[in-house]
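Lab notebook: predicted structure, single chain.

Context: the supervisor wants predicted structures on file for every construct in the current expression panel, including those that have not yet been purified. This is the next one on the list. No modifications to the sequence; it matches the entry in the shared construct table.
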Amino acid sequence: MSELIEIVDSLENKVSKLLHKMEFLKQENRLLKDELALVEQSKNSLEETIKVWEEKYDSLKLASSMLGSNEHKTETKHKINTLIREIDHCIAQLSE
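Prediction complete. Output recorded below exactly as produced.
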């Protein structure tokens, strides 16, 4: 009977340790999820910043080519043609 009590005590001890470890892992998981959310938020913010800077860069390239720079002339012509087509399309829609 003594051996049975020792086995039960041993099992209780192991279950207790497992429960404690499970709680610790739950807390760690919660912390990691919070950290992941912060990192994703930071990433999204940086992506928005990159998008803004890319738009500014494109605007500067366009302005530079309009001021006589030969570097981006073809790209500027394509952009102007696209804008003209969009304006023509809007005028056509307004005429209907």
